[in-house]
C-alpha cells in the first residue's frame, strides 16, 4: 500500500531543493566573478590617471619604456620640450616624470 506524503516530508523536500538551488546560484556567482576578474586582468593596464579612452591628459606621467618621441606621437604634441622647461635633456626622460601635454587641434579633431 502506498503511503501519502506527509506535510513534514513535503516541507523537507522543498527545503532541500531550495538549499540546492541556493548552492548552485552561489557557485555560479563565484565562477562569474572569477571569469570577470580574469578578463579585466587580460586588458591592457591603465597607468595612474590615464584612462583607456583618454591616453593623454593635460598632465601626463611618463611610464616605463616611454620616450618623448613616443609620447609625442601618442598624444599629438610635437612641442613637449618647449612647454616643459624642467626637461633640459630630451634623452633624460624617466618613469614618473610629470610633463605638460597640449595636444594639437588636428589631433583633437581626430578623436
UniProtKB/TrEMBL annotation:
Instruction: Indicate the segments forming the LysM domain, all copies.
Output: 60-102
Question: Keyword Membrane on this protein?
Answer: yes
Name the keywords, alphabetized.
Membrane, Transmembrane, Transmembrane helix
Coiled coil, from the record = none
* Record flagged with keyword Signal: no
Q: Where are the transmembrane segments?
A: 12-32
**Name of this chain's protein:** LysM domain-containing protein
